[in-house]
Structures are given as C-alpha cells and as structure tokens.
Amino acid sequence: MVKVKKIPMRKCIGCGENKPKKDLIRVVKNKENKIFLDKTGKKNGRGAYICFDMECLEKAIKTKALNRAFEVEINDETYNDLRESIKKQ
C-alpha cells in the first residue's frame, strides 16, 4: 500500500476558501509586531494566508481581515508590498 502524503491546507483570509498551503502567500507578524511577507513559509511568528489573487487581497483589506488576524492596525506600506507580490505572480 502506498502512503499518500498529506497536503497542508490553509484558509485564505480574503475569500475564506481552504487551499493547499503552497498556493497561498503567508503574511507574518513577529514578536516585534513587524508585519511582512514570508516567501519561505517558515519564518517565526503569527501567520495569515491569502490567495495570489488581487480580488482576495482587496476583500481582505476592505474587511480589515489582516487587522483582525494580527490584532494590530496594518499600514498602507504592507498592503502595497502584498499588491506587488501578487502582481509579480
């Protein structure tokens, strides 16, 4: 019998869909309350995931989903970094 490898699933905070972790961007808040993109998916801190989709990002911004996930106000610079990452995909 072949053992099937389990694919880690995460929920997009924009659309709310469960998707494979590798198909999402990870946004991290570290101990210093610095919020940044984690391209490796392995950095320390609280993580939230979002699709590589501008609509999901705009929905997350509009509903302040990242603010709620990290319990902190998120600045425009962080949102702009997210937009740039999605455009590059």
Could you list the spans in which at least 5 consecutive residues all have pLDDT below 50? none
Shape category:
globular
Mean pLDDT: 90
* Percent helix range: 25-40%
- Gyration radius (Cα, Å) is 14 Å
Question: Main beta sheet: strand number and arrangement?
Answer: 3 strands, antiparallel
Give the end-to-end Cα distance, rounded to a whole number of Å. Answer: 38 Å
* Total of helices: 3
Strand percentage lies at 15-25%
Secondary-structure element order, N to C: EEEEEHHH
In the sheet with the most strands, the strands line up as 4-3-5
Write down how many β-strands occur, each being a DSSP E stretch of 2 or more residues.
5
Coarse structural class: alpha+beta
